[in-house]
Design the sequence.
């Protein structure tokens, strides 16, 4: 370890900043966030820096650097544009045993600024000791993705209730309790943005604390997107990392599943057409049972759970059972496939609205409001429409859509195996057979399909 990370309490402490340009301003922003009082020495300063000085109840000394100013700060930052001046400041500060940082000159520094991840009172500093600042910044980006924006609110809640918890529980129990707070439903609720609900949960548990949580586990209903793992949301990824058990189905791609916590139990509940490996009732019950065992249950769905995903039915049972749950949206197939195929779903010249329609046959039949679907100026997106494709195209033409209306099939959209088959209402059903298109596939009908050749990008080559 080349540098020791220390956490400085700078609240209301005078910090001497020599220099008034853009770099000094950047440092001043950080110091101000930490509550420092800014003493700025410079001939000129930026408008923002002037405001920061005022906001921190500090002082602007309009002057060039003089050693006697060192008396004014508990730490020193040399941020002038003149290297020789910065070197002099560093030397003087070290003689005075003051911690000093000189911008962009590690050899003049006795401390450096790490890359910082900030969540309310929580701060994480990453320092590579000057060896690889870009690496430190990359690690910061990874931590940013890993830590919910709500982590700060969670830390604030803990600070607010610390004394109350201390008074209620003996020391031996406190640690268990806080462990539960930071890993269970309190954390989930606060991180999902509902601090009040988290606080209520915490206080309920506190009043009845028996050494372990009395409540059940929880369920995360998460949209895993159409296949490309890069399309997951940050929240989806975080919950995937926390789950004890995951229930997934056929549409969840192997690459997405890969990102679930390694030691989480995996249960396949997939459905294939006409073949239900676990009937829906069974899935609903399983979710409830697992949560009641105190587990964090991840129900991972392809695309978005609330778009042809039966998400509503599954959480209906969970809500009835009084089990805490949250729903995380995912990129739905229509959105993913259309982007990756270069087919915009709306376009000024072709479509002013878009419809998501189920093409799933019930007893070999498709009852849809064909008249409305055949209206001009819209894009139609059929989910589960491969088996019924012939019927779909025939009915649309019978109700007035021109036979030459462009139509496309996107097979395994957003995955490395994506294929796009383009034709029109007369040719697409035959193309599906001759090209051997397989599920999952999405059908897109409308003028926007004609843009595919022009707007396709390198993902679809
Ligand atoms: N909840 C999912 C849809 C489930 S219905 C979502 O929001 O995307 C299943 C149908 O979605 C499939 O029959 C197919 O039409 C479509 N689908 C899902 N993933 C797909 C993909 N990667 N490529 C093409 N179609 C897909």
Sequence:
């Amino acid at each position: 370890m080349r540098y020791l990370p220390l956490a400085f309490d700078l609240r209301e402490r005078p910090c001497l900043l020599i220099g008034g340009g853009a770099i000094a301003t950047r440092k001043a922003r950080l110091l101000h966030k930490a509550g420092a009082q800014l003493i700025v020495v410079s001939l000129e300063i930026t408008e923002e820096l002037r405001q920061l000085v005022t906001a921190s109840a500090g002082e602007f000394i309009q002057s060039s650097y003089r050693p006697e100013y060192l008396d004014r700060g508990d730490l020193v930052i040399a941020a002038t544009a003149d290297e020789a001046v910065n070197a002099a400041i560093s030397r003087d500060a070290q003689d005075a045993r003051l911690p000093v940082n000189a911008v962009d000159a590690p050899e003049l520094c006795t401390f450096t600024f790490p890359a910082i991840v900030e969540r309310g009172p929580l701060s994480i500093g990453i320092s590579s000791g000057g060896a690889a600042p870009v690496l430190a910044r990359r690690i910061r980006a990874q931590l940013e993705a890993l830590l919910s924006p709500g982590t700060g609110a969670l830390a604030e809640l803990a600070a607010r209730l610390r004394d109350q918890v201390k008074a209620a529980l003996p020391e031996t129990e406190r640690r268990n309790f806080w462990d539960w707070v930071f890993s269970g439903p309190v954390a989930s609720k606060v991180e999902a943005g509902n601090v009040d609900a988290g606080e209520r949960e915490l206080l309920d548990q506190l009043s009845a604390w028996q050494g372990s949580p009395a409540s059940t586990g929880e369920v995360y209903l998460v949209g895993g997107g159409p296949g490309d793992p890069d399309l997951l949301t940050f929240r989806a990824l975080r919950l995937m990392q926390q789950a004890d058990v995951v229930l997934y189905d056929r549409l969840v791609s192997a690459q997405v599943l890969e990102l679930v916590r390694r030691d989480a139990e995996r249960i396949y509940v997939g459905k294939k057409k006409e073949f239900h490996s676990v009937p829906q009732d069974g899935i609903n019950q399983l979710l409830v049972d697992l949560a009641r065992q105190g587990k964090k249950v991840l129900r991972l769905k392809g695309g978005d759970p609330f778009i042809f995903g039966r998400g509503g039915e599954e959480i209906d049972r969970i809500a009835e059972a009084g089990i805490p749950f949250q729903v995380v949206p995912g990129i739905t197939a229509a959105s993913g496939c259309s982007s990756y195929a270069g087919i915009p779903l709306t376009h000024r010249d072709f479509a002013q609205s878009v419809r998501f329609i189920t093409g799933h046959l019930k007893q070999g039949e498709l009852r849809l409001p064909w008249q409305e679907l055949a209206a001009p100026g819209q894009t139609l997106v059929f989910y589960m429409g491969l088996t019924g494709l012939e019927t779909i195209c025939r009915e649309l033409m019978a109700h007035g859509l021109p036979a030459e209306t462009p139509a496309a099939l996107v097979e395994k959209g957003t995955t490395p195996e994506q294929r796009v088959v383009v034709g029109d209402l007369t040719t697409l059903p035959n193309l599906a057979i001759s090209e051997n298109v397989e599920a999952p596939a999405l059908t897109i009908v409308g003028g926007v399909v004609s843009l595919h050749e022009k707007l396709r990008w390198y993902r679809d080559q």
Observations:
- The chain has 17 helices and 19 strands.
- The CA atoms of residues 107 and 338 lie 53 Å apart.
- The longest strand covers residues 37-42.
